[in-house]
Amino acid sequence: MAALLSGRRNGTTHAEVALLATLPQELRLIGGLAVMCRVGTPHRATVDLDAVTRDLTGVHERLARLAVTATGGGQYGFGDGLDLDVIDVAPASAAELAADLEAAGPALTDLELNVVAHVWAHDGATPLDIIAIDEETGLPLAAASGRLVATVGGLVAMKATTVTLRASSRPEKRASDLYDLGRLVVDGNGLALGLDAMPQVLRAAVLSRLHRWFIDGAGRDRTYRDVRRFDDPPLDLDRVADAVEDLTA
Fold first, then answer.
1. Residues contacting residue 159 through CB under 8 Å, at least 6 positions apart
2. Domain containing 108: what range?
3. Contact, 62 vs 84, CB < 8 A?
């Protein structure tokens, strides 16, 4: 399968796809570029790359050789202002990790749910040929073939468990996550099947939060205030609410 992402020559999308083509194949793409791949364009602009991997130490040396800066903690800086953040996921599967955490009781914390979500997204990633094309001519600008990208369900799980962890000092991050969630719920294919395959504790948390943010009155009003800064394309909250209703029916 291929994802065609339109943009300007030497623009951000062109640069990101060109950079992605040079990175180790073990990395699983998450974040804004992954959302663009799964919902199609147009979508909000993204200015960096985000990935997950298992055993970051195994790819760190290769990443550090490619990067201009490698400050530690999975953060790498490249030319043209592009950054790469890599999250190292747990060695166990999402199901095993969730079972272990549930056994420790009493209930999984927001952070523990987020850890499970990242593992689940990592293990479920599927390959895509990602191609940046010129928005005016349609000609290819850069290509990253066979890159592992988190599925719609994986992205929804990560973002739904990340929103509650956003500090009040980063409201723009909460807003962008909610906007991405809305686009993924409406435009992403295969979400219902993806949710069904999640560990039950993760699935219940994701559905509960989607209902709170996009259907419940107070939560929906706050979501509207958060996401209205993104208008390309505008997010139709009625369509999102209908899609969430279908998921929880």
1. 177, 180, 181, 184
2. 2-248
3. no
